[in-house]
């Protein structure tokens, strides 16, 4: 089966490849990407946006916005069991792309500890698998399971669920 040009590019361009086990996480806003550590993320503070980075070649997988993720450092006491399984020392990673129409999920409500998309106000609970609390989003934000290696945040497995949104 022949691949469409877009699919072929995604398979041959390392910066477009989806996060892989062992990838490090680096901040989106970094000119010189330094791998993130749990201590880099303040407890209960607003999300940090990150890209996966291949550790050997230092290729930042920023060639597709579907690889953009948000990281939060929360008290794991309130996590449901599934969230606890993909968290690392209270740090959770989810796709930064709203499942409704693909806007970036940029809003953080520190009092309720909820994420929200500013476009159509879908609200997600990061302590409960990023389940949709309200709004038009059809499904939770996909989670990216994490581990810690050498004090740094590392991708444990690919996204749980499909990153992005489904066009109608």
Describe the overall structure:
It contains 2 helices and 10 strands, in the order αβββαβββββββ. With about 170 residues, the protein is mainly β. It has a single domain (about 5-155), classed as Rieske [2Fe-2S] iron-sulphur domain (Rieske Iron-sulfur Protein, 3-layer Sandwich). It is globular. The mean pLDDT is about 90.
What is the topology?
Blueprint lengths: L4 H8 L11 E4 L20 E6 L15 E5 L7 H6 L4 E5 L11 E3 L4 E3 L6 E3 L5 E4 L11 E4 L2 E4 L13
Overall mean confidence score, pLDDT: 91
Low-confidence stretches: none
Distance between the termini: 26 Å
Describe the largest sheet. 4 strands, antiparallel
Outline type? globular
Can you tell me the CATH architecture?
A: 3-layer Sandwich
* Coarse structural class: mainly beta
Number of strands: 10
The fraction of residues in strands falls at 15-25%
Number of helices: 2
Q: Mind telling me the CATH class?
A: Mainly Beta
């Amino acid at each position: 089966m022949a691949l469409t040009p877009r699919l072929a590019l995604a398979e041959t361009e390392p910066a477009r490849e989806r996060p892989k086990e062992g990838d490090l996480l680096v901040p989106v806003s970094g000119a010189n990407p330094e791998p993130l550590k749990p201590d880099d993320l303040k407890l209960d503070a607003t999300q940090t946006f990150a890209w996966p980075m291949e550790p050997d070649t230092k290729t930042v997988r920023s060639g597709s916005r579907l690889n953009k993720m948000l990281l939060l450092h929360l008290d794991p006491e309130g996590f449901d069991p599934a969230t606890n399984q993909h968290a690392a020392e209270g740090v959770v990673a989810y796709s930064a792309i709203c499942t409704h129409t693909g806007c970036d999920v940029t809003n953080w409500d520190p009092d309720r500890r909820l994420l929200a998309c500013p476009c159509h106000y879908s609200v997600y609970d990061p302590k409960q698998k990023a389940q949709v609390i309200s709004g038009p989003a059809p499904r939770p934000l996909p989670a990216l399971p994490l581990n810690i290696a050498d004090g740094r945040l590392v991708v444990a497995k690919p996204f749980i669920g499909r990153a992005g949104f489904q066009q109608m």
